[in-house]
Write a structure and sequence with these properties.
Elements (H helix, E strand, L loop, with lengths): L1 E7 L8 H5 L4 E3 L5 E3 L3 E4 L2 E7 L3 H10 L5 E5 L2 E2 L2
């Protein structure tokens, strides 16, 4: 099964929890906001990337660590977090 990360960058407060929790997918940019690595800009400041089930637990934990809930995980267009 393929899952999807959805990141609304303009809501990011730059706390760096995602980058600390999951540096394979996240890093901090020069503007002090997070960057979802290798993602596609799907509209305005919204970025998405697909990932496999073996990354689900860590990516769910990462989304849960975001204090402003600007990171979401989807399964077949159903929002998991």
């Amino acid at each position: 099964m393929v899952y999807k990360y959805n990141f609304i960058r303009d809501e990011c407060i730059g706390c760096s929890a995602c980058a600390a929790c999951n540096p394979e997918f996240w890093e901090m940019a020069d503007d002090a906001k997070s960057v979802l690595l290798n993602s596609n800009n799907v509209k305005d400041d919204v970025f998405e990337i697909d990932f496999d089930e073996d990354k689900l637990d860590l990516n769910m934990e990462t989304a849960e660590s975001c204090p402003v809930n600007c990171i979401h995980v989807y399964d077949d267009e159903k929002k998991l977090i």
